[in-house]
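new request in #modeling-help
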Amino acid sequence: MAQFWKPGTERPPLLDDEEGGILLYSASSASSGYGFVSIEKQRQRLPVFKYRTSILYLVETHATTIIVGETGSGKTTQIPQYLKEAGWADGGRVIACTQPRRLAVQAVASRVAEEMGVKLGEEVGYTIRFEDLTDRDLTRIKFLTDGVLLREMMDDPLLTKYSVIMVDEAHERSISTDILLGLLKKIQRRRPELRLVIASATIEAKSMAAFFHTSKKHRGLEGGDGVPKTEPAILSVEGRGFNVQIFYVEEPVPDYIQAAVSTVMSIHDQEPMGDILVFLTGQDDIEAAVRLLTEEAQNNGKPSSGLVVLPLYSGLSRAEQDLIFSPTPRGKRKVVISTNIAETSLTLEGVVYVVDSGFSKQRFYNPISDIENLVVAPISKASARQRAGRAGRVRPGKCYRLYSEEHFVKEMSAEGIPEIQRSNLVSCVIQLKALGIDNILGFDWPASPSPEAMIRALEVLYSLGVLDDDAKLTSPTGFQVAEIPLDPMISKMILASNQLGCSEEIITIAAILSIQSIWFSVRGQQKELDEAKLRFAAAEGDHVTFLNVYKGFLQSGKSSKWCHKNFVNYHAMRKVIEIREQLRRIAQRIGIVVKSCESDMQVVRKAVTAGFFANACNLEAFSHSGMYKTVRSSQEVYIHPSSVLFRVNPKWVIYHSLVSTDRQYMRNVISIDPSWLIEAAPHFYQHQRLNSIPH
Ligand code: ADP
Ligand code: MG
């Protein structure tokens, strides 16, 4: 296993005194949540409880209140309840609490409903994209993603039904959070009675306060007659938690999945009881680690029953989520292998050991090549500290970092970069346009996106026919595309399918593309999965293959047995049906006639091209390695091994997304005729590029 230096043995000199190898958390109060303590008692033991009166006073008297507090101190679950108890939800008003992650929205809402003893979906509800569990008349506390709240602004620009909006996890600086903060600041000017609460684990509170401090000319009224002060209040909730001892590896580890697995095994071997939380990056490496751990536990002759290994990533079913939060069975040790969702969004009770890979999946966008990737990249020091802190909730804990201290000190940046500065801005621009914000460069951003990225986005939207020469939304196309809660390229594909007479098929494809995967990958059964895929494989590519799977699923009577037999993920297919139904309703609302093209797959491919022409690629002549170049910017890309077109290598393809590992891989690929590109977007490709496309 990886070599860690341990207390008591000689260790390399510390490079950074301030860090000191040990993080100190004030150990102020005893742990809660254990034993048979009533929910009321548990609530009172949370650190925020001491601040209940102050929080309510500040919200009453200030337009914006910024609350900073350690993860697990009760911000998300308690503050909305305090606000409700104080009357902020009286008279039909609603308290909103936003989260960047869907899974956190669901988990937190169900916890709060449980604490209040109400049925989820009634007094306490949640809304995430494609799933609305609220009641128009009954819901008083509503959890939702920040993206959904942005969408709600399209119907109700001033968000009039909300009395308080709590923007939670603000330190994450997700793209939607940043857009939301900018827009809420505007709304505040028109609705002085609206209160904002901005909550976070580590936020740089001063800069956030400066952002919300409106200029002098808007002041003057404040303070009197129930008009709140515009200067934001800052409240810091004293953390709880215990010392966490940090261990670094002595040498960089070649394979963090393997290193994580052996570290877990040796903790299980040598350390007293207590659950383990492992931070990896995404579904793939998490599943791999789960598999290795299960095998390893068996090989060592130790019954794997001693370890309860659970994955945690977005896209888990409710039942799988519930397992994560249920108490560890007596005499067992829970190992949760998670993405950075467990960094600050969710609190797991009972964690004493943290294993930190030092990586997370992050979005990176290069406006020059116009390529956006999800990349496994080093986390920031701030994230590393948060991860370590998760070990100190119930008693003193230990954090095993799978990177060297030198790496921590020298290589890791202090803070992450806000997502808006490393993302493709197409969706962001269209949303702001739909909300009537015309001067996007001049928009009041918490952190400004790069002008290059902005220009790229405008260019793509223009070529999609969504924006006109004055950069205004076109009618009806622009407004229709904005109305569909999907990536504008998918929305455009749906609109095009209307003219081409294949909207039934395209809506199915859109639904499938909006979930992670419809395949069921079983440990060690990659070969069987590949064979199963072949049963559905279409020469045209993955999109048409999806249609075959969907058809098979319907013909089976939506049978879970059928799914099992064909390595199709039943849970994912149920979700597809649900999303499809909603997309169908949206399509009909914006005037699309939902119609099938039966077996004419050419029109389906044309519709895909109409949305995704910007992702066209051409196979390099004489390339034996299957190398493609993007038509747009001549980037080198390859077909992903999971695609049915892997090794088939048609001359012209369009991809849905890129993943980058050792190379740039295209996921979900369809073959096209290059002449369709010119049909779909005559102005898009520059002349020299057009020349390379045979007419
Ligand atoms: P914060 O938002 O400050 O990170 P939370 O309000 O999410 O804190 O959590 C406060 C406490 O509530 C946690 O420390 C935990 O004890 C409890 N809790 C939260 N969510 C759950 C859940 N799903 N199941 C059990 N306990 C939970
Ligand atoms: Mg929280």
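bot summary: Residues 570-589 form the longest helix (20 residues).
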